[in-house]
């Protein structure tokens, strides 16, 4: 069965000098390991995350995709690259540079690798301009963080950006980042395990309960990472609150379940029962294969959860593994892509 992994990350070999020209204190850079296989994402002098070569080496990435039977992978920035706290003009230059590097990464195997762009989301005009430039240059969509400082996704600035994307045919992946924490979650990756799913639920409910979906273009293609975070499991709680409390529904004319057809989620939930609930909640035509590759918290055998599900029929399985992504991103069929792949590799 064909597979398109629509949620995977890259981190180009950003030098310390390149990062320092953008923001010496906050811009990330890559410190290669002595073994040539591993590295460390750094922020100034502080280690941020250990990583390995597939994050920046497209040759190894394609080898691993072959091993997993993945026909195409759509890559996007590691969220620490966003640069939302920088001055807008500097962030715009940084985003353009990162987007060019992402396309260069994908040029190794252009029928196997596609890129989503990043934008300087702190400035509406610059973000819209870069999103449109990136689309014209060959990016298949845009990845954004789920908030910019205190601005959640229902902020009018961010709604205006989503409107631009909807009106210009630019698909959007919303990825949680800069997770809420006051220092109570110090160990065991708890910000990733607790706050990250909560951030995504916050984004979805912010759009629903603010009434934003009533104003956004119907054609906006919007996807939330990590299976929608906590949202599918807690939809019943939100639904009950909407019916029982006027302060919950004051800006939202329909119950939360009414808006499930307005967005997609990926399949990165790692558990058969969670996948079953996700598909029952969203519908098989609103879930796309996403692995969060190549990080340890991602799906280690890409597509195995969906491919091995006994709860999905063959049609639903095929839609989740590839068909929905073809429609969401407006891709040529996977068969066309894989036929051309061998001739496109250097």
From TrEMBL:
Gene Ontology terms, MF aspect: aminocarboxymuconate-semialdehyde decarboxylase activity; hydrolase activity; metal ion binding
Presence of the UniProt keyword Metal-binding in the record: yes
CC per GO annotation: cytosol
Pathway: Secondary metabolite metabolism; quinolate metabolism
Domain Amidohydrolase-related, residue spans: 4-331
EC number: 4.1.1.45
GO biological process: secondary metabolic process
Alphabetical keyword list: Decarboxylase, Lyase, Metal-binding, Zinc
Protein origin, superkingdom: Bacteria
Complexes and interactors: Monomer.
PANTHER family with a match to the protein in the record: 2-AMINO-3-CARBOXYLMUCONATE-6-SEMIALDEHYDE DECARBOXYLASE, 2-AMINO-3-CARBOXYMUCONATE-6-SEMIALDEHYDE DECARBOXYLASE
Family: Belongs to the metallo-dependent hydrolases superfamily. ACMSD family.
Protein known as: 2-amino-3-carboxymuconate-6-semialdehyde decarboxylase
Organism: Pandoraea terrae
């Amino acid at each position: 069965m064909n597979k398109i992994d629509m949620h995977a990350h890259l981190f180009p070999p950003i030098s310390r000098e390149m990062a320092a020209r953008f923001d010496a204190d906050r811009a990330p850079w890559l410190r290669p390991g002595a073994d040539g296989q591993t590295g460390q994402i750094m922020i100034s002098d502080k280690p941020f995350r250990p990583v390995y070569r597939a994050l920046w080496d497209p040759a190894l990435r394609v080898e691993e995709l072959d091993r997993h039977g993945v026909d195409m992978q759509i890559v996007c920035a590691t969220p620490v690259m966003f640069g939302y706290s920088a001055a807008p003009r500097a962030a715009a230059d940084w985003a353009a540079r990162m987007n060019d590097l992402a396309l260069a990464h994908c040029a190794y195997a252009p029928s196997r690798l596609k890129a989503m762009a990043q934008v300087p989301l702190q400035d509406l005009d610059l973000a819209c301009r870069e999103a449109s430039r990136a689309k014209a240059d060959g990016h298949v969509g845009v990845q954004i963080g789920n908030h910019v400082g205190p601005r959640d996704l229902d902020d009018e600035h961010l709604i205006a950006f989503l409107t631009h994307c909807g009106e210009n045919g630019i698909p959007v992946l919303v990825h949680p980042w800069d997770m809420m924490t006051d220092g109570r979650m110090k160990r065991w990756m708890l910000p990733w395990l607790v706050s990250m799913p909560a951030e995504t639920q916050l984004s979805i409910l912010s759009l629903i309960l603010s009434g934003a979906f009533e104003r956004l273009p119907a054609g906006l293609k919007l996807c939330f990472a990590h299976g929608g975070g906590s949202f599918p499991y807690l939809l019943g709680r939100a639904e009950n609150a909407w019916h029982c409390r006027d302060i919950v529904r004051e800006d939202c004319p329909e119950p939360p379940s009414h808006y499930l057809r307005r967005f997609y989620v990926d399949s990165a939930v790692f558990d058969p029962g969670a996948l079953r609930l996700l598909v029952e909640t969203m519908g098989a035509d609103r879930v796309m294969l996403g692995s969060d590759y190549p990080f340890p918290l991602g799906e280690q055998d890409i597509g195995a959860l969906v491919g091995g599900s006994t709860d999905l029929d063959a049609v639903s399985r095929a839609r989740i593994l590839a068909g929905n992504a073809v429609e969401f991103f407006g891709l040529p069929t996977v068969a066309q892509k894989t036929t051309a792949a061998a001739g496109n590799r250097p």
